[in-house]
Design brief:
CATH topology of the largest domain: L,D-transpeptidase catalytic domain-like
Shape: rod-shaped
Order of helices and strands: HEHEEEEEEEEEEEEEEEEEHEHE
Radius of gyration: 41 Å
Distance between the termini: 133 Å
CATH superfamily of the largest domain: L,D-transpeptidase catalytic domain-like
Number of helices: 4
Strand content: 35-45%
CATH class of the largest domain: Mainly Beta
Number of strands: 20
């Protein structure tokens, strides 16, 4: 009887030990490491996602579903000490990746993130002006745009010394640099032109010889019409040169004196002054025709007379500051 009891007790102990062993194995399985991560360091290109699932580092497929789930529930992946949530992107440099299992460090890696891709820098276009007319050089800073895969980029712009009294081309140079030292360059030009018909830019061009007006936008003609300029016979020449529209107004009464001293008044619907209140572009409904040689004996008092419809259209296209070239 005594031996039987001893046998039963021993059997219970053996079975209990076996069950404990099985239970612990299921709840605390060994972690078979993915051979890819057997080293303690590896490299990533900037922008590469950091694997955020333990299945990347541990071979979960070799485990039972229960053991695999246990590992997933009891591991934590830390990037520079912070949990990796979703696909986090790295900054260039050295970083630490730590895998914790059941609250203890399982593996620790040194990750070197490299950036070999240069920034992208572009220029939106060139700057055009005419001899003797300086540009607002603060606008030069806005012509360049730079971006980088790191999200951080420094843009340095080198501006040339421009002689606006001399026709020529000048280069604005830009260098973009990212935190890893990669660089990219771009250029834009400042082009100083002669006061010529068809030059690139936005301006009104009046040819006294041809008695013709053309409005250019970025060097392309968008409006043209015949005009009548100042009466050369009476000495009321339209001033030649390059000016800017100073102000614009609707329904104006132009007043002045004839050569004989008589006062005159002329109503205009569209007034675009380019020299004070004395000279401007405007409609002239009292004229039956425009162009040709009219200006030589029956021209204006110095203004540029335009057909009504053309003056109305031009008024809607220009603004104060628009260049007016008369040659």
């Amino acid at each position: 009887m005594t031996n039987t009891r001893k046998y039963i007790a021993k059997s219970i102990l053996i079975i209990t030990a076996a069950l404990v062993c099985i239970f612990c194995t299921a709840c605390d399985p060994a972690l078979p490491l993915n051979p890819k991560y057997s080293y303690t360091s590896f490299e990533l290109d900037i922008g590469q996602p950091i694997p955020d699932h333990i299945g990347e580092y541990v071979d979960l497929k070799s485990m039972s579903p229960e053991s695999a789930q246990f590992v997933v529930d009891n591991t934590e992946i830390l990037y520079d000490g912070k949990p990796v949530k979703g696909k986090k992107f790295s900054d260039a440099g050295e970083h630490t990746l730590t895998i914790k299992y059941k609250g203890r460090q399982y593996r620790k890696y040194t990750i070197t993130v490299t950036d070999k891709e240069p920034p992208v820098v572009t220029a939106s276009g060139n700057f055009y002006t005419f001899k003797g007319i300086p540009l607002d050089e603060s606008e030069f800073d806005t012509v360049f745009k730079a971006s980088d895969n790191s999200g951080k980029v420094k843009l340095k712009i080198k501006k040339p010394e421009v002689d606006y009294d001399k026709v020529g081309e000048y280069k604005i140079k830009a260098v973009a640099k990212d935190p890893s030292g990669n660089k990219a360059k771009a250029e834009a030009k400042i082009i100083v032109q002669e006061h010529e018909y068809g030059a690139i830019g936005t301006y009104v061009f009046v040819s006294i010889e041809k008695q013709h007006l053309t409005y250019f936008v970025d060097g392309k003609p968008v409006l043209d019409c015949p005009v009548v300029t100042g009466n050369t016979y009476a000495g009321h020449n339209t001033p030649r040169g390059t000016y800017r529209i100073q102000y614009m107004a609707r329904n104006q009464m132009l007043k002045g004196r004839e050569d004989n001293g008589d006062e005159y008044e002329s109503f205009v619907s569209y007034w675009m002054a380019f020299i004070g209140n004395s000279y401007g572009l405007h409609d002239a409904t009292w004229r039956g025709s425009f162009g040709g040689n009219i200006y030589q004996g029956a021209g204006s008092h110095g203004c540029v007379n335009m057909p009504y419809s053309s003056a109305a259209e031009l008024y809607g296209l220009v603004s104060p500051g628009t260049l007016v070239m008369i040659y």
